[in-house]
Amino acid sequence: MGSIYQKVLGAEFSKLHPEIQKRFGFSSSDGIAAIGRGTMDKVWYGKWFTLPFLYIGTWRNIMFPQKGENIPFTIHNYAYMDSFGRETVTWVRSFDFQNRIRKFDATMIYSEQRQKIIDYLGTHQHLVVEIDMSVADNGGIKLRSGNQYFYEGLLRFRFPMIVSGYADVCEWYDDVEGKFRIDVQVHNKAFGPLFGYNGRFDVEYVKGEPIPAEVKPVREEKRE
């Protein structure tokens, strides 16, 4: 079984740097996890009026109102089958600001219905985001967020982008440094930059390790 990223990229997957192929190429059938550890050179947020949105995000581990430089960083990617039988990959990021650990949690699936990656943000999968994916010129992988939907009980709606943001992510492998590099930028068309980070990390691949409960969402939703 190929990974959800191989499924969406098809033949283009082979154009990725070999280290990126390895990192994005495993599935639940492989029993492998990728644990990244490194440093974010910079974590930032936009102007003062972005702070209320970022504070709200901390309730469910979706972005946060804190910034700094040389921030220790970890990321846990586990592939597993969720309770709906969908191939799923965890994206649990931790940023150590010394006085506080900030987290940014997500789980990704491939939607047969939409023919693209769906990113469930937060601990309770409240926010559903469509992801467009492509190969970068440097052999990295590029992700761009699209339509966003909010679900909570009977409350459900498509998020108006005037009050949300588009995320542009590029992850690549730096042969000179021998490290993975990442750049994340979230912006709003009307209000400009909202949040982002960039830095570098190493990846350890572990096999046969049980998936920690804390990297799985508290609640799973089937919103495709």
CATH top level label: Mainly Beta
Q: What is the number of E strands?
A: 11
Regarding quaternary structure, what we see is: single chain
Query: Fraction of residues in helices?
Result: under 10%
Keywords, please?
Lipocalin; 11 strands; single chain; 224 residues; 3 helices; ten-stranded antiparallel barrel; mainly beta
Describe the overall structure:
This protein is mainly beta and 224 residues long. It has a single domain, classed as Lipocalin (Beta Barrel). Helices cover 9% and strands 51% of the residues. The protein is built from three helices and eleven strands. The chain has a ten-stranded antiparallel β-barrel with strand order 1-2-3-4-5-6-7-9-10-11. A hairpin with a 4-residue loop joins β4 and β5. The model has no long low-confidence stretch (mean pLDDT 89).
Summarize the structure.
The chain is mostly beta strands and 224 residues long.
